[in-house]
tRNA-(Ms[2]io[6]A)-hydroxylase (Flavobacterium restrictum), 193 residues
Amino acid sequence: MLGLQLATDPRWVNIVESNIEEILTDHAWCEQKAASNAISLVAYNSEYEELVTEMLIIAKEELDHLQLVHNLIKKKGLTLGRERKDHYVNELFKFMKKDGSRKDALCDRLLFSAMIEARSCERFKVLSENIQDPELAKFYRDLMISEAGHYTTFLGFARKYQDNIDIDKRWQEWIAFETSIIVNYGKNETVHG
């Protein structure tokens, strides 16, 4: 469904389980960044009423997810650590086209966002199916469903607002690029690491 070409090795969960505090801290900050991304899309594209409405919903959902992760951190007697850089997302960001019209830039930003949601959804699925902690397995299953919805929303808006871009072709370029960088990840106890 997600179109990703390279699946996460389930053994990544063994790394995650070695440091639950780290994965939860990283996850919390990923949710904060996802909310900020949705707000940024609103700020730069306020003329698109339907987009604004949906991005506000996504921003709220992402903040709700941040709250859920924070509650889980507290429940487990852990501490929310400092914000971390997400090298995977930073690499994806560099792939965004910087030329073309404002609408072209919007479409590429939406594809960038869809890609992050797709990989997050895939990672949450791997966690939900392989982590030993039943509470975390259910937690990540529930979030996987939400991430899949965000992925389809971003992709749908990219298709809706495209002018001169073949969105399906550009999406395939995003998938190919993501495949070329994801091979370097899956070695750390972070959502994309």
Remarks:
- The domain at 15-183 is CATH 1.20.1260.10 (Ferritin).
- The chain has a mean pLDDT of 95.
